[in-house]
């Protein structure tokens, strides 16, 4: 389970991560990352912890399947919190295939999405157009 300080709960925080953050899509999930976002609700000048939230809609399956997917994603993100910049907001949205996916497939998609989001912006390692 995610520690309390790492949970994203407020609607405004979800909206900030989705609307103002970067996005990386994979076949099983979409990850939105707002790096180094400051929490206007936090007191003092302390850097807030990285917080994560999850969106698992009814398109995934029934309540049992949705809860299983959400538990798996929470566990996967918890193990990867130290890779994310402090103060980041992360929203992981499960896509319909996630209900039938194995744990390892979810982990691969999450790792690939996070790797893409954490690359330095402005660099094109694929040798883009001049």
TrEMBL record:
Top-rank taxon: Bacteria
Keyword terms of this UniProt record: Endonuclease, Hydrolase, Nuclease, RNA-binding, tRNA processing
Species annotation: Streptomyces ochraceiscleroticus
Family per similarity comment: Belongs to the RnpA family.
RNA-binding keyword on record: yes
An example molecular function term from Gene Ontology annotations: ribonuclease P activity
Record keyword Disulfide bond present: no
The protein's name in its UniProt record: Ribonuclease P protein component
InterPro entries per the UniProt record, alphabetical: Ribosomal_Su5_D2-typ_SF, Ribsml_uS5_D2-typ_fold_subgr, RNase_P
Enzyme nomenclature, EC number: 3.1.26.5
Subunit structure as annotated in this protein's UniProt entry: Consists of a catalytic RNA component (M1 or rnpB) and a protein subunit.
Entry-linked Pfam families: Ribonuclease_P (PF00825)
Function noted in UniProt: RNaseP catalyzes the removal of the 5'-leader sequence from pre-tRNA to produce the mature 5'-terminus. It can also cleave other RNA substrates such as 4.5S RNA. The protein component plays an auxiliary but essential role in vivo by binding to the 5'-leader sequence and broadening the substrate specificity of the ribozyme.
Catalytic activity: Endonucleolytic cleavage of RNA, removing 5'-extranucleotides from tRNA precursor
């Amino acid at each position: 389970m995610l520690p309390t300080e790492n949970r994203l709960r407020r609607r405004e925080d979800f909206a900030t991560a989705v609307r103002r953050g970067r996005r990386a899509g994979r076949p099983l999930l979409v990850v939105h990352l707002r790096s180094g976002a400051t929490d206007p609700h936090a007191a003092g000048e302390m850097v807030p912890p990285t917080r994560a939230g999850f969106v698992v809609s009814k398109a995934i399956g029934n309540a049992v399947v949705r809860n299983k997917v959400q538990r798996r994603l929470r566990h996967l993100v918890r193990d990867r919190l130290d890779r994310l910049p402090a103060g980041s907001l992360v929203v992981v949205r499960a896509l319909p295939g996630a209900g039938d996916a194995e744990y390892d497939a979810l982990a691969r998609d999450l790792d690939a999405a996070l790797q893409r989001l954490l690359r330095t912006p402005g660099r094109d390692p694929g040798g883009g157009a001049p």
